[in-house]
Each structure stands twice: as structure tokens, then as C-alpha cells.
Amino acid sequence: MGDLFSGGHIVVILLVFLLLFGGKKIPELMRGLGRGIREFKDAKDNVAREIEDHVNEDKKTNQTTTAATTTKSVPSDSSVHN
Predict the structure, then answer these.
(1) Range of the domain at 37
(2) Angstrom distances, CA of residue 41 to CA of 2, 34, 37, 45
């Protein structure tokens, strides 16, 4: 069957793309594509940062709860020592 995207196929695809959109529209399309990719990466990073913040917040809450339960002192009963 051969390679789907051999050198000749890529040249034909580029020529068709150039004919359809023209030389002036291609830079605008690429700029828009770049902006879209950048926005997607920013959104992905924001979601990852929020998840990490929530996980860290949960860890701090659990550590605080554990520390509070282990530091409680047991009152001594003075009547036992008589």
C-alpha cells in the first residue's frame, strides 16, 4: 500500500492548501492555530495546578487533624496516687 504521506503527497497537499486559502490567508490561519494551541496549553496547566493545589490542601488538612489527635494529653487522675 505504501506510505500515506510520502514526499510527493505532502507537496500536493501543500499546493492544494495554498490554492484554497491563498498566500495572504495562511499566516493568519497559522497565527490563529498558534493562539488556539497556546490557550489549550494554558487551560491544561491551570487544571493541573488546581488539582495539585487541592491535593496539597487535603494533605495539610489530614496532617493537621492527625497532629491534633496525637497531641491531646490524657489528664492524670490524682486520686489514684493516694
Answers:
(1) 22-54
(2) 35, 11, 6, 6
